[in-house]
Amino acid sequence: MVPSATDPQLANDPPIASDILHRMVKDFFDTMVGLPIEPISESDATDGCDCVQSSVRVSGDWSAHVVVTATRALATDIACAMFDLRPSNISEDEILDAIGEAANILGGNIKSEVGGTCELSIPRVGLFEYEDSDAFTEIFRCNDQFLRLIIRPIAN
Amino acid sequence: MKLLIVDDSKAMRMILIRTLKKTSLGDFTIIEAASGPEALEILEKDSPDMILSDWNMPEMKGIELLQKIREAGNNIRFGFVTSEGSDETKQLALDSGAAFVLTKPFTADSMQAVLEPVLS
């Protein structure tokens, strides 16, 4: 039983079941990226510090940051697929654009799944060192690289 | 058919153009705008047959763009491509004069399904 994400008392509970988040990420990769991706457990993830990160904020009946963190190699693969370019021809701006769009699409899908009245922010992108998250994290592997979908609920 | 694509993400504009080519809707002449204000500028000097716009953009949201176009008396065919496919979003879009809302992520088939009735 998945708790109601719009119940402020449940702000610290997972907002959406894992299988739904897995389907969202798989649909995004199938249609927008064209690469196979699979959910994995934390123990199977060996992503290091060199990551690219983007996030959107959902604000309203339910509020959270939805963060997409990808290893730099995977972020480059995503950008190459989206722009139809070779890795040697892809720019930093294009990598950030692609990973920002990933957060925009997944954040929007999550917002729609949660329901209620919410606003979605413009994506923020950056290059950060990966830090362990205290929020809900789903981990995926694609081309032996890793992507994390992190949901950090914000108490209303 | 001249199509104006409005999206602040260049990656998404490229995906939209590639996906359009995979449909059987024929050839399109594509004009690109990276923002709502840029789209309005283009509309002043060009006459696209249809607009495909993102919803969530800086400077001007897609829904504001549509409302400004309708306020100006322009009845150009207008569709949204957005990751926010909630019933609330769709209702607001349709009430404001949009012909459809295509939810991201999309396929050539789902794009064709929403565009075909509008173009026929």
Question: Could you describe the 3D structure shown?
Answer:
Chain A has 156 residues and is α+β, with helices and mostly antiparallel strands. Chain A has 3 helices and 7 strands. Chain A has helices at 18-33, 72-83, 92-114; strands at residues 38-40, 50-60, 63-71, 118-120, 124-129, 136-142, 145-154. In chain A, strand 2 (50-60) and strand 3 form a beta hairpin. Chain B has 120 residues and is an alpha/beta fold. Chain B is 45% helix and 21% strand. Chain B has helices at residues 10-22, 36-45, 62-71, 87-95, 108-119, and strands at residues 2-6, 29-33, 50-54, 77-82, 100-103. In chain B, helix 3 links the parallel strand 3 and strand 4 (77-82). In chain B, helix 2 packs parallel to helix 3. Chain B is globular, with a radius of gyration of 13 Å. Chain B starts with a strand and ends with a helix. Classes of the chains: A alpha+beta (156), B alpha/beta (120). The A-B interface holds A 27-28, 30-32, 79, 82-84, 94, 97-98, 100-101, 104-109, 111-112, 115, 117, 120, 122 and B 8-12, 14-15, 18, 56-58, 82-86, 88-89, 103-107.
Compact summary:
With 156 residues, chain A is an alpha+beta fold.
